Amino acid sequence: MVTFVNVQNVASWISAVGVEPIIDGMVSYLEADFGRWDRFDKTPRVASHSLYGVIELMPTSDGTTYGFKYVNGHPVNPKRGLQTVTAFGVLADVESGYPTFISEMTLLTALRTAATSAMAAKLLVPKDATTMAMIGTGSQSEFQALGFRSVLGIESLRIWDTDPDAMAKLVTNIEPLGFDITVASSAADALDGAQIITTCTADKTNATILNDADIVGGVHINAIGGDCPGKTELDTALLRRSMIAVEYTEQTRIEGEIQQLEENWPVTELWEILTGKKPGRSDAEQITIFDSVGFAIEDFSALRYLRDGVEGTDFFDSLDLIADPEDPKNLYGMLDV
Ligand code: NAD
């Protein structure tokens, strides 16, 4: 039997434990897995692009456990009442090859994306940061805000979205949790007084969500939305004067903001900063960018965290997923024909 966590159970588990404690816990799983980087199989995700968006498979293995996520990215979806991003994921036992765990990952992806942003921010954010600008207040945004509060104590948000309803939704959802939220009149206005800037927009184009001229020294940019070929958010002039951290260089050169730069443009992988191999922020005036695209090891960490979290609870079912006849050579014998 395969342990199966459906959407309702993931939602109930999150409600029971709390978004911030989960993101906090996930950060420690991410740090553990990024800290043993060499142990993992790594490959850029396998993407199938279409006019509508992209469908991707994201596999990895640490030699004991194998994992993958199925995920889509369809910026047109909200216009027809669907999510931009949906996902499910699997863990399997490397020794037998049998799947052991399967879960919804749309909610889990929002948590792991926020946890990864928070892990990067711990390494790069300037000291004493108090305020985050958030450009793009769609599905990921509340999770991002809660991630930055859980790890860095950020409670002051300045938000901007081209859709006023999306901003109103964010205010309704998280202002009651104690956030001090200012609704800005433009992206540039949102940046005023912010030491951290999260860009989390969805548009399949080379957008300029942040203009180089609007960015002052010393900020940390958490760039989430540019995660596909031809789908970016940042001005190249801004990239060229910033320190850029990535998850897995080979994948980010295809999908991230740095697809706009020369192929050998220097970047630092998060695991290198985490393990002390390379420095993070060098000085208070440096602009740092986390060029986030989402990498398979993050989903592996998130699935591990959920698997461990639901163990011994009622938040899962057992799924009869694998045909496993008593005589392993008599698959046919399972049929009633
Ligand atoms: P969403 O569609 O729910 O929200 C996107 C928001 O961006 C919308 O509210 C839209 O109005 C706003 N927007 C679009 N263009 C804008 C602009 N020019 N200025 C201001 N706001 C603008 O999408 P989501 O699920 O929140 O995902 C956001 C983005 O993050 C997507 O591009 C998605 O592919 C990406 N994403 C990345 C990761 C990662 O690991 N890096 C993980 C999940 C999602």
Summarize the structure.
The chain has helices spanning 7-17, 19-34, 106-124, 141-152, 164-174, 187-191, 236-240, 249-255, 270-274, 296-310; strands at residues 2-5, 46-49, 54-61, 65-73, 87-93, 99-104, 131-135, 156-160, 180-183, 196-199, 206-210, 220-223, 232-234, 243-246, 268-269, 288-291, 317-319.
Textual characterization of the structure:
The chain has 337 residues and is α/β, with parallel strands linked by helices. The protein has 2 domains: 2-108 and 297-334, ornithine cyclodeaminase, domain 1; 125-294, NAD(P)-binding Rossmann-like Domain (Rossmann fold, 3-Layer(aba) Sandwich). The chain is 31% helix and 24% strand. The chain has helices at 7-17, 19-34, 106-124, 141-152, 164-174, 187-191, 236-240, 249-255, 270-274, 296-310, and strands at 2-5, 46-49, 54-61, 65-73, 87-93, 99-104, 131-135, 156-160, 180-183, 196-199, 206-210, 220-223, 232-234, 243-246, 268-269, 288-291, 317-319. An 8-stranded parallel beta sheet has the order 9-8-7-10-12-16-14-15. α2 crosses α3, α3 (106-124) packs across α4 and α3 crosses α10. It is globular, with a radius of gyration of 20 Å. The mean pLDDT is 97. It binds nicotinamide-adenine-dinucleotide. Nicotinamide-adenine-dinucleotide binds next to α3 and β11. Residues 73, 78, 84-85, 109, 113, 135-140, 160-163, 166, 200-203, 207, 209, 224-225, 227, 292-294 line the site of nicotinamide-adenine-dinucleotide.
